[in-house]
Amino acid sequence: MPELPEVETTRRGLAPYVERQKVTAVSIYDHRLRWPVPQDLPRRLIGRVVDRVDRRSKYLLFRLGKDTFIVHLGMTGSLRVYREPPARRAHDHVDLTFGNGVVLRYHDPRRFGAMLWSPHSALPHPLLADLGPEPFSPEFNADYLYRATRHRKIAVKLALMDSRLVVGVGNIYANESLFRAGIRPTRPVNRVSRERLGHLVAAVRQTLAEAIAKGGSTLRDYVDSAGEPGYFQLDYYVYGRENEPCRTCGSAIRGVRLGGRATSYCAVCQR
Ligand SMILES: [Zn+2]
Predict the structure, then answer these.
(1) In angstroms, what is the span from residue 206 Cα to ligand 1's centroid?
(2) Which of 82, 83, 117, 189 has an alpha carbon 20 to 30 Å from 164's alpha carbon atom?
(3) CA neighbor of 193 nearest in space, from 180, 207, 182, 204
């Protein structure tokens, strides 16, 4: 599933080709994404200029004047830029053509992604309304986490993956960040001290930043490429390493299920 680093890399990969470009054609080959692609999307987009491409959590936000075209990649979605588009393949659902001849193509085998239109309004789109701070924003800090979690007894890992608390920390990055912060994923979040929450904030940023940096080396995969953009394989400390030795202390990494998600940790390094 594309996580925040993949979405941010997608944004960086396509932005130079579509920003300040006018949409000249929109082809919708299949409307059936997570929600139907709006029937009037071509009418709304054609003739408009994409001012810039932003990201909020895992949503890509194409800004056109005061309106926003919102794209979410779901489980298996990807966006690719073509200067000369090849013939459509299976699961290519939407093409946006721009004045510079570039085609932005949306591909999604499982069709859990979304394409939505948000007209100018004082209120954010409902999907974005309840999102917590971005992990790299100053609002995400030890004091904020401390205040927001004192009354909550859920496991710290589940709190970290709750997008109302902070956005963009999926399962892989929650596991890895907690290892780097030395915090056991199952510990009740209200029993993690302010100081240790500060370590966690730093670890989340470091882990995501490393993945985004790794994504930088794959940017060319988003342009004129035949294959699917890959996922960024970090050298994980704990994720997917159950029963293997901890890279720090050599103990066997333990695996448990937490909220239905694979959770791994070192019982010596994480308390
Ligand atoms: Zn260890």
Answers:
(1) 19
(2) 117
(3) 182
Q: In a 3-state reduction of DSSP, which class is residue 172? A: helix
* Cα maximum dimension of the chain: 60
- Dihedral, 237, 240, 243, 246 alpha carbons, nearest 10: 0
**Alpha helices (runs of H) in the chain, residue ranges in sequence order:** 4-18, 41-45, 126-129, 142-149, 156-160, 171-181, 194-216
Contact 174, 166 (CB under 8 A): no
Could you count the other beta carbons within 10 Å of the beta carbon of residue 159? 23
Ligand 1 geometric centre to CA of 173 (Å): 17
Tens of each residue's pLDDT in the chain, 271 residues? 889 999 999 999 999 999 999 999 999 999 999 999 999 999 999 999 999 999 999 999 999 999 999 999 999 999 999 999 999 999 999 999 999 999 999 999 999 999 999 998 777 889 899 999 999 999 999 999 999 999 999 999 999 999 999 999 999 999 999 999 999 999 999 999 999 999 999 999 999 999 998 887 777 777 877 666 666 667 899 999 999 999 999 999 999 999 999 999 999 999 9
Q: Which positions ≥6 away from 89 have C-beta within 8 Å?
A: 107
Residues with CB under 5 A from ligand 1 (ion): 246, 248-249, 251, 266, 268-269
Q: How many whole angstroms from its chain centre is CA 230?
A: 14
Non-local (6+) Cβ contacts of 256 within 8 A are 185, 186, 263, 264, 265
Contact between 181 and 174 under an 8 Å Cβ cutoff? The reply is no
Return the active site residues: 2-3, 58, 261
Q: Which residue has the tokens 């333990």?
A: 254
